[in-house]
Amino acid sequence: MEEDIEMHLVYEDTKEELLAIGRRAKHQPPHLHQTLELVYVMKGSLELGVGLELFHMEEGDIGLVFPDVNHHCQVFSEQYSEVLYINIPTRTLGTYEELLKRKAPVYPVIKYGELPSEIYPAIQSMKGSVPKNIWIVQAYLQVIFVRCIPLLTLTEKSQVGSNDLIYQTVSYISANFRKSFLLEDMAKDLGVSKYVLSRVFSKTFHRNFNQYLNDARLGYAKQRLENTNDPTTNICLDSGFESQRTFNRVFKEKYMVSPSEYRRKLYEDLEKVIL
Predict the structure, then answer these.
(1) pTM over 0.85
(2) Range of the domain at 177
């Protein structure tokens, strides 16, 4: 695959984003989000880490990571691997929304031979020429989820996670990145020294505290730029940045363009698709 498959669809009433990305499999550090994530191995293999467990996935397998569950991905094989990631707002799945908040799978991977045959045509709709109507995509995803959920053993979400420092670190940043705080503040709240916490960032996430925090803020800001018409100043402050100058600098360092340029290019690309 030379280019990523990428689809952004937004519910106009809530601005929630339904995101599908197909890309070469690569290492992803521990993280969590408020959406349900469907992981589909299109080619090769992938190791899906949930909590402290690592689950092997091969071509045709599906993994379901429930909201607010710490997870990561690793690639051990030298073989070229491709993965489709679909992030699904919980509201998309109707009556299952409450279950998604409370429960999580004991074993989140469903093997190729266990999946109903109608799953694969629905997944194919997310690849290549994807439909632009969010309600059509939602219908496909409901089919996938309703067929998959009976194949999973669910438990209380607290039993799937971990109380280790890595899990606490990811959860803390996810919950607080829009606020202003220092490494010392976070260490105090977690009951560890700032030196221990600093080593977690460098050894586990391969970046320092400020870099990891800015990545979380940039991810949120990027979604707001893509899915709203909010002024960049509002997005900057809502994302946790103390000044527009800092926001512009770190955004450009990561994405090679300023926030305004990123949004303008996004609109230009959208107009080309429409025309």
Answers:
(1) no
(2) 165-269
